[in-house]
């Protein structure tokens, strides 16, 4: 009897939870950062999945059949924009869902209303590390930009699910309060690195550098996907020696050898930073992403 | 200059070592007609490393190397056994299958462990520029040992020996390729393997001479490729591969001079060059006549080399407009760069710009980009209209050049034609 009762209870729970899951807004984001920010706004009212797994280069992602299924089931789509996740356009064209395609009510381009850095029209700038002119796409790495990104997400969520608009609004406010408190903490910790010259592998850090007033003086990779030329490496090493660069920043997916080569010649240490949620252990959500990076940078600066 | 030599010296030494062993293996591989075997073995080694990585071993550990080696040896067994296939199906078919299946399995495995993607890429896309004395410390003794072994067993390494000797050949080759691909990448190792050996075989008959030519060419071309990559600011591996390609083309041109009647070789080379020139000129004439607004590669190249050529067909007004647009486009580019630079400096200097100021800068940058695009459009339009105007006379002139260049004796042709009549 007890068994029957528990089976019945279990079945009821399963049905209820399935119904609840159906009730929640299915959101597809291109990156894990946007997933984390969507969850911050949506709370338990949304189920968010990211198409690009953590630690893969989102600029070179190759979609899988499951991604198509995810798009077909999505009620809301959040993308980075600025030519960062260009592969999504073809996927969207195939999915044939106008509401989550460009211009649709459930389509969010997170870069909307962001103050974009390093915009170069349609021409390729010298040594800017990006082969497109829409500006540097790594804008989520400025925690202040989370205000704009979450506002974009909030607006779309409120439109899709007006009944819960107040909840979303409150979630976002709570998140931003927490983030702003953290921001002050990060700023004071990173003040030790103010003006300290840094070299990075890829130009992923202009927004981060601007917010925390870091001086990124050069990049090892000048164009994405193209190995650096010897004259460029020689120049970087020369600059690093001349300006006393002690920190070289590398993301986990970037080639270890090239970074180690430059760092060893200039007598600098390599600091592994996560440019996306999940790229390093401990960087489990948007706030801990910065926690991990700030801790790595301050530890490196303390070693000087 | 000393800085440059210091910078390129280790990479050059590594290249010399790689040429040393690969030119020899290249001759052997060409004799066995298994050209792409290095790609297959490298991919198999990468697959072994991926499996090790999936099982939790760190990338540069002995366990990982052990997995790589085991996989390579298994592939060597497979290759030795399937030599007999050669009579019915080329062994290259099997090599191709090994390559694609190993690559596909690696992708499937990586899909389960995303952090391995970069690792797999690194195994197959080494960068010779960032190699150094630590790599030399590994490969010099290894290659010396393999070289010595092959010298001692030279009678059995001809490809006609028993299965066991074939296994020794593929196993040692696999060991060499596994280490070299990690240092220099698949593309460059393939060039080291095939091109010096091909040139050696083209120009000499005995193994020792072929080897000597392969080594000398390989070392010289490596040095040239490294130097070119520094001088022209190019990615090193790609520049070296292109240098090797160019050296093979040159050897192909020189081949008939070295191995045959020089007079005849000279005549046939001149004829070929003239035919190519005539075809390019006639093609350009046709392109200009049919689609004057489309790209004109020959004209574009000529104008790029000597911009004053435009004066030949631009009117004065067109030349003025073109010059104006060029100047403005450059000015907008500079202004945009200045703004970008100002924003960059402000990240660390002074008060720092607020978001509003940054947004203003980015909207200015957008406008400058649009304006520059506008000027570039004007330049293209002026040139297209001028070319449209001269399409007939221009294509006639090009055609006349083609007739001048083509190696046909028009008088004899016309005599024969009238004679038949």
Task: Name its key features.
heterodimer; A: 304 residues; alpha/beta; Rossmann fold; 2 domains; four-stranded parallel beta sheet; 10 helices; 8 strands; 47% helix; B: 421 residues; mainly alpha; ABC transporter involved in vitamin B12 uptake, BtuC; 16 helices; 81% helix; 0% strand; flat
Task: Report on the architecture of this protein.
The complex is a heterodimer of chains A (304) and B (421). Chain A is α/β, with parallel strands linked by helices and 304 residues long. Chain A contains 10 helices and 8 strands. In chain A, the strands form 2 sheets. Chain A has a 4-stranded parallel sheet with strand order 2-1-3-4, sandwiched between helices. In chain A, strands 6-5-7-8 form a 4-stranded parallel sheet, with helices on both faces. In chain A, helix 2 crosses helix 5 (145-160) and helix 3 (65-73) packs across helix 4 (87-95). Chain B has helices spanning 2-32, 37-54, 62-81, 91-112, 116-124, 133-152, 163-184, 186-203, 207-231, 236-259, 262-290, 297-305, 316-346, 355-389, 391-405, 410-420. Chain B is flat, with a radius of gyration of 29 Å. The mean pLDDT of chain B is 86. Chains A and B meet through helix 7, helix 8 and helix 9 of A and helix 1, helix 5, helix 9, helix 10 and helix 13 of B.
Give a quick precis of the structure.
The complex is a heterodimer of chains A (304) and B (421). Helices cover 47% and strands 11% of the residues of chain A. Chain A is α/β, with parallel strands linked by helices.
């Amino acid at each position: 009897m007890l068994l029957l009762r528990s089976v019945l209870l279990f079945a009821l729970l399963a049905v209820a939870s399935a119904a609840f899951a159906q009730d929640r807004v299915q959101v597809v984001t291109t990156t894990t950062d946007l997933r984390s920010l969507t969850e911050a706004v949506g709370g338990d009212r949304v189920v968010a999945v990211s198409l690009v797994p953590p630690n893969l280069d989102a600029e070179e992602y190759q979609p899988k059949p499951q991604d198509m299924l995810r798009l077909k089931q999505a009620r809301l789509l959040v993308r980075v924009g600025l030519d960062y996740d260009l592969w999504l356009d073809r996927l969207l064209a195939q999915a044939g869902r106008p509401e989550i395609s460009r211009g649709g009510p459930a389509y969010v381009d997170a870069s909307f209303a962001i103050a974009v850095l390093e915009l170069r029209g349609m021409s390729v700038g010298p040594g800017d590390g990006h082969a497109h002119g829409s500006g540097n796409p790594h804008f989520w790495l400025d925690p202040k930009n989370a205000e704009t990104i979450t506002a974009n997400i909030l607006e779309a969520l409120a439109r899709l699910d007006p009944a819960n608009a107040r909840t979303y609004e409150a979630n976002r406010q709570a998140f931003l309060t927490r983030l702003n408190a953290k921001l002050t903490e990060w700023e004071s910790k990173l003040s030790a690195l103010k003006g300290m010259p840094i070299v990075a592998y890829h130009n992923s850090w202009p927004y981060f550098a601007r917010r925390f007033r870091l001086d990124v003086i050069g990049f090892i990779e000048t164009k994405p996907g193209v190995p650096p030329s010897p004259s460029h490496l020689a120049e970087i090493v020369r600059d690093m020696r001349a300006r006393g660069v002690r920190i070289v920043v590398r993301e986990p997916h970037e080639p270890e050898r090239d970074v180690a080569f430059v760092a060893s010649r200039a007598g600098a240490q390599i600091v592994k930073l996560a440019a996306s949620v999940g790229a390093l252990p401990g960087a489990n959500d948007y706030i801990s992403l910065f926690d991990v990076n700030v801790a790595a940078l301050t530890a490196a600066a303390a070693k000087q | 200059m000393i800085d440059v030599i210091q910078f390129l010296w280790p990479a050059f030494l590594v290249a010399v070592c790689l040429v040393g062993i690969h030119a020899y293996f290249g001759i052997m591989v060409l004799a066995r007609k298994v050209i792409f075997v290095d790609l297959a073995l490298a991919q198999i080694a990468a697959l072994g490393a991926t499996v090790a990585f999936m099982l939790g071993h760190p990338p540069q550990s002995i366990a990982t190397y052990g997995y790589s080696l085991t996989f390579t040896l298994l592939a060597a067994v497979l290759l030795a056994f399937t030599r007999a296939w050669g009579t019915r199906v080329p062994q290259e078919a099997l090599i191709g299958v090994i390559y694609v299946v190993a690559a596909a399995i690696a992708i499937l495995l990586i899909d389960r462990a995303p952090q391995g993607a970069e690792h797999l890429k690194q195994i197959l896309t080494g960068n010779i520029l960032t190699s150094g004395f630590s790599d030399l410390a590994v490969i010099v003794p290894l290659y010396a040992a393999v070289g010595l072994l092959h010298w001692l067993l030279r009678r059995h390494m001809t490809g006609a020996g028993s299965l066991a000797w074939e296994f020794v050949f593929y196993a040692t080759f696999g060991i060499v390729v596994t280490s070299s691909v990690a240092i220099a990448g698949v593309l460059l190792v393939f060039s080291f393997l095939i091109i010096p050996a091909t040139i050696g075989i083209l120009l000499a008959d005995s193994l020792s001479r072929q080897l000597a030519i392969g080594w000398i060419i390989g070392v010289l071309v490596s040095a040239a490729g490294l130097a070119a990559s520094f001088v022209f600011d190019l990615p090193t591996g790609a520049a070296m591969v292109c240098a090797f390609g160019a050296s093979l083309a040159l050897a192909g041109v020189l081949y008939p001079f070295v191995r045959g009647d020089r007079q005849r070789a000279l005549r046939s080379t001149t004829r070929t060059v003239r035919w190519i020139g005539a075809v390019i000129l006639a093609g350009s004439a046709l392109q200009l006549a049919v689609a004057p607004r489309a790209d004109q590669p020959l004209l574009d190249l000529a104008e790029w080399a000597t911009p004053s050529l435009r004066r030949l067909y631009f009117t004065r007004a067109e030349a003025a407009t073109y010059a104006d647009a060029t100047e403005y486009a450059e000015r907008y580019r500079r202004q945009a760069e200045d703004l970008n630079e100002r924003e960059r400096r402000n990240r660390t200097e002074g008060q720092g710009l607020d978001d509003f100021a940054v947004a203003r800068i980015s909207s200015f940058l957008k406008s400058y980009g649009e304006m520059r695009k506008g000027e570039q459009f004007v330049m293209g339009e002026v040139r297209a209209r001028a070319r449209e105007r001269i399409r007939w006379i221009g294509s006639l002139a090009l055609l006349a050049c083609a007739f001048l260049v083509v190696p046909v004796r028009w008088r004899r042709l016309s005599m024969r034609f009238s004679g038949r009549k």
